């Protein structure tokens, strides 16, 4: 018998037949990715964890509605996206999400190599300059490594829109991060 | 602006077909501007990745075996198709058996001679109807009992869920209260210091 790793689609089929352990394995496989995706959107660990819990619960309850088990990842992220945005709307209805937490960035001296914490702060500020749509496109492409087709599925928009959001964001980031010089990088 | 035959950003993110990729790579060997553009993209990606590594969730997500994942009674009913079919068949078999056992004594109580003479007794059909009514009554009673049990289970679950949410919100509120108290305390201290300084100046 040729060994192969059990794929998500096999686990989904088993979970649909009521095999609890199969779904538990799916949770273990995806929880870290979903948690970090949510954390980057809601920026609060406790909220991200609560939302991740809700995402897996919703996914379990709607597993039968997943038409193609091979698309479990984008489908799960789509649920996470919806949960995160509902939560953001609930918690901060009066705040414009795109302008939240923005502070002007004081640039370091020219050519000086930055400490890791300085790089983190610079990235945080640069990401805050982006619109929430652009930021999410960056998260899904750069941090989560999805294809444009999958990003479009998660965000519920055409591929061209997903692409344009990411590329506009990258142009902005190139500008705002041009002064960042990482230590150890030449 | 890039002069590459295909979008360099698509190339960078691995979104080109093998043929497009190879064509772009040929172009890159001879175009310094596009190589620089590509290097800038790589810089931005490296900076983004270096600033924010994935973290482990502080607690594990609850598994299906945990209480939070339990299906509702109607979901269990919905997903239990084969079991219900088997149970239905078993119930039908039991009903046939009960019917057979209850009806037979009436016929066997008569002597073989009277049995031979007698026409088919109409009592058998009356008994059958009575038994069916009885079975119906019992099945309905069982169903009502099961539904009541599920309803009360549902109520308990909803209460548990609401309580957990309330506790969580209370915990969050109390954490915020502590922070506010600490902040007020600091303000008091600062006010006291300012007042002392003012008195000293006067």
Description:
The complex is a heterodimer of chains A (186) and B (202). With 186 residues, chain A is mainly α. Chain A contains eight helices and no strands. Chain A has helices at residues 8-16, 20-42, 45-61, 72-91, 116-129, 132-143, 148-155, 159-176. The longest helix of chain A has 23 residues, at 20-42. Chain B is mainly alpha-helical. Helices cover 78% and strands 0% of the residues of chain B. Chain B has seven helices and no strands. In chain B, helix 5 (81-108) runs antiparallel to helix 7. The longest helix of chain B is centred in the C-terminal third of the chain and has 79 residues, at 123-201. Chain B is flat. The two termini of chain B are 68 Å apart. In chain B, 6% of the residues are buried. Chain A binds chain B through residues 15, 18, 20, 23-24, 27, 31-33, 35-36, 39-40, 45-46, 48-50, 52-53, 56-57, 60-61, 116, 119-120, 122-124, 138, 141-143, 147-148, 167, 170, 173-174, 177, 180, 182, 185, and chain B through 9, 13, 15, 40-41, 43-52, 54-65, 68-69, 71, 75, 79, 168, 172.
What general form of chain A does the structure show? elongated
* Average pLDDT reading of chain A: 83
Helix content of chain B: over 70%
Largest sheet of chain B: none
Order of helices and strands of chain B: HHHHHHH
The poorly predicted ranges of chain B are 107-111
Mean pLDDT of chain B: 77
What is the percent of helical residues of chain A?
A: 55-70%
Q: Work out the helix count of chain B.
A: 7
Largest interface: A-B, 44 and 34 residues
Number of strands of chain B: 0
**Computed Rg of chain A:** 19 Å
Summarize it.
Chain A has 186 residues and is an all-alpha fold. Chain A is 65% helix and 0% strand. Helix content of chain B is 78%, strand content 0%.
Compile the SSE list and pairings:
The complex is a heterodimer of chains A (186) and B (202).
Chain A: H1 8-16, H2 20-42, H3 45-61, H4 72-91, H5 116-129, H6 132-143, H7 148-155, H8 159-176
Helix pairs in contact in A: 1-2, 2-3, 2-4, 3-4, 4-7, 6-8, 7-8
Chain B: H1 8-12, H2 18-30, H3 32-51, H4 73-79, H5 81-108, H6 112-117, H7 123-201
């Amino acid at each position: 018998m040729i060994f192969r790793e059990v794929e998500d689609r096999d686990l989904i089929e088993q979970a649909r037949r009521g095999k609890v352990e199969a779904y538990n394995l799916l949770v273990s496989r995806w929880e870290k990715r979903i948690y970090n995706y949510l954390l980057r959107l809601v920026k609060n660990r406790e909220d991200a964890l609560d939302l991740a819990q809700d995402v897996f619960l919703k996914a379990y309850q709607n597993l039968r509605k997943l038409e193609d088990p091979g698309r479990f990842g984008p489908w799960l992220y789509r649920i996470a996206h919806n949960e995160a945005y509902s939560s953001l709307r609930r918690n901060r209805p009066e705040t414009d999400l795109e302008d939240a937490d923005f502070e002007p960035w004081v640039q370091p001296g020219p050519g000086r190599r930055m400490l890791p914490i300085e790089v983190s702060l610079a990235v945080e500020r640069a990401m805050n300059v982006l619109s929430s749509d652009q930021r999410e496109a960056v998260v899904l492409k750069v941090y989560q490594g999805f294809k444009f087709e999958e990003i479009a599925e998660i965000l519920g928009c055409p591929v061209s829109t997903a692409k344009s959001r990411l590329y506009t964001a990258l142009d902005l980031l190139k500008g705002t991060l041009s002064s960042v010089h990482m230590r150890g990088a030449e | 602006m890039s002069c590459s035959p295909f979008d360099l950003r698509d190339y960078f993110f691995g979104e080109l077909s093998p043929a497009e990729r190879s064509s772009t790579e040929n172009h890159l060997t001879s175009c310094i501007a596009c190589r620089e553009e590509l290097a800038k993209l790589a810089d931005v990606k490296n900076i983004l990745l270096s600033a924010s590594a994935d973290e482990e969730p502080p607690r594990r997500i609850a598994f299906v075996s945990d209480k939070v994942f339990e299906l509702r009674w109607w979901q269990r009913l919905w997903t239990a198709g084969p079991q219900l079919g088997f149970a239905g068949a078993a119930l039908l078999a039991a009903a046939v058996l009960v019917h057979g056992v209850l009806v037979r004594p009436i016929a066997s109580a008569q002597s073989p001679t009277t049995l031979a003479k007698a026409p088919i007794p109409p009592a058998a059909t009356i008994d059958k109807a009575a038994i069916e009514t009885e079975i119906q009554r019992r099945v309905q009673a069982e169903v009502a009992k099961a539904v009541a049990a599920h309803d009360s289970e549902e109520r308990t679950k909803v209460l548990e869920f609401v309580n957990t949410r309330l506790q969580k919100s209370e915990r969050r509120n109390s954490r915020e209260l502590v922070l506010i108290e600490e902040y007020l305390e600091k303000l008091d201290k600062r006010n006291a210091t300012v007042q002392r300084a003012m008195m000293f100046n006067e």
